[in-house]
Amino acid sequence: MTDQELIEGIKQQDRNAFRFLVGQHQRLVIKTAYYFVGDMDEAEDISQEVFMQIIDSIGRFRGSSTFTTWIYRITVNKSLTRVKRNKRREIFTRLESLFRPGASTPNLQEPADESDPVEKPENKELLNRAIASLPDNQRTAFILSKYEELSYKEIAGIMELSLNAVESLIHRAKINLQKSLSAHFPEYVKT
Amino acid sequence: MLKPEIMDDMDLPNRTDAYIAKIVAGEKALEPKPYAAIRILQHIESELQARETGRWSLFPRILQPALVVSGLVVALFLGVAIGRHKTTLASTEATAEAGIETLRSELFLSDFTDEENTLYLVE
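Predict the joint structure of the above. Result:
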């Protein structure tokens, strides 16, 4: 099934087209969402919203970008919305824990032990937090570049930015990540 | 520590980048849970069905409040109309009463009303 046939099928609410759409793109959507939220169940949840959004707004797809680029764009937007919602929830939970006796928040300033810090799950969490603390556009460019291994041109298409802007975003994202991580792993940072 | 080939493969400028690349590589190895596509399709199907059902249930959902509001409006109008009618009747009665009172006072009829109705027997 070509993209054009698929799009027409979705417009006709053809269940076979839906099956083909999900079969072809679910991996891309779930994995991209996962890189933003860091949880596979939540990523799957986001993917359900993404596919419903695709079905609902297929009439607005004008073909100025490829179908895959359009799907990426919807996935990124849905994921960023979820991340923001999670952040608000996290702030609320932290505030709540302040008033709950005996509750403690995880201490991110713990010194690393002698083993390779990359192998420790809490340090993966640390990187996820560092990525999550990046501004939305830097995070998106970084994830699409490093995790999805998309070219700057593809990222520019998804984010509707120029190539130079994408290059600059990724560069700034890397500098910001280095700053965040150097505080925790000085041995990993070039001196 | 990091293997040299990771440093070379990623072609990253420093150790922090290599650290990030290693974690990213681990994350990339993760795959969606089995049958995710089936769950997504089920969600789409149930969502579309719910919308279809919702479209039909829209009529009573709109009709019910509309009926309640129109009932309230009718009750309000009826109340006002009945109230206005009662006021007119009351004022007509009051005017008639006042007229009678004036007439009675002008004709000194009030004196008779207060007169004692006692009969005195004359022997």
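The CA atoms of residues 87 and 93 of chain B lie 10 Å apart.
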